[in-house]
Specification:
The complex is a heterodimer of chains A (about 110) and B (about 110). Chain A is mostly beta strands. Chain A has no helices and eleven strands. In chain A, strand 9 and strand 10 (about 100-105) form a beta hairpin. Chain A is globular, with a radius of gyration of 13 Å. By secondary structure, chain B is mainly beta. Chain B is built from no helices and eleven strands. Classes of the chains: A mainly beta (about 110), B mainly beta (about 110). Chains A and B meet through strand 4 and strand 5 of A and strand 5 and strand 10 of B.
């Protein structure tokens, strides 16, 4: 199993540009989530999904959209990038139970 | 108040030392508790779950005190390879979401 994969690994954007961060898992997990990690702030939940066709907002959803058309894929869209969205983004998945969460390797995003 | 609060650290300890990390959580209805480890510029990985009766995994011991809403992690005989950031994680709410503490950085010195 590849586990949780994320692309790209690194990305530089200009303010106002849009892009999609890809996330896929091959473990047939129900739950998938997107987090951002900033220095001193820990991991903050952006959006999550409890199954295909179901998404919900987390702690910091503004400026981001998600969709979950399949169990495997959970892309994160930045609608109009802002410097405040410079961060490391982690995608994660887990089964309903147990609650062990598996993370992708992360995407480092710089918005100029 | 943050939902999950941890010792800010950093902790710098010599090899072989015993070190303890503490964590408090605000939601008394929280259901499950975990410690994750994150190496520099890597993704977090599960270190161990935390059970009400306390549990041990080799040199690592985790304790949960539901009455005080307090979780701890004890590392005995620290190794250089234990250097990492340790994240306290709590599962709570009807959506069963995980909330992460901001982490405690540990450096084990030779």
């Amino acid at each position: 199993n590849a586990g949780v994969t994320q692309t790209p690994k690194f990305q530089v954007l200009k303010t106002g540009q849009s892009m999609t961060l890809q996330c896929a898992q091959d473990m047939n997990h129900e739950y998938m989530s997107w987090y951002r990690q900033d220095p001193g702030m820990g991991l903050r939940l952006i959006h999550y999904s409890v199954g295909a066709g179901i998404t919900d907002q987390g702690e910091v959803p503004n400026g981001y959209n998600v969709s979950r058309s399949t169990t495997e894929d959970f892309p994160l869209r930045l609608l109009s990038a802002a410097p405040s969205q410079t961060s490391v983004y982690f995608c994660a998945s887990r089964p309903g139970t147990p609650e062990t969460q598996y993370f992708g390797p992360g995407t480092r995003l710089l918005v100029l | 108040r943050k939902e999950v609060e941890q010792d800010p650290g950093p902790f710098n300890v010599p090899e072989g030392a015993t070190v303890a990390f503490n964590c408090t959580y605000s939601n008394s209805a929280s259901q499950s508790f975990f410690w994750y480890r994150q190496d520099c510029r890597k993704e977090p990985k599960l270190l161990m779950s935390v059970y009400s009766s306390g549990n041990e995994d080799g040199r690592f011991t985790a304790q949960l005190n539901r009455a005080s809403q307090y979780i701890s992690l004890l590392i005995r005989d620290s190794k250089l390879s234990d250097s990492a950031t340790y994240l306290c994680v709590v599962l709570s709410g009807s959506a069963r979401q995980l909330t992460f503490g901001s982490g405690t950085q540990l450096t084990v010195l030779p």
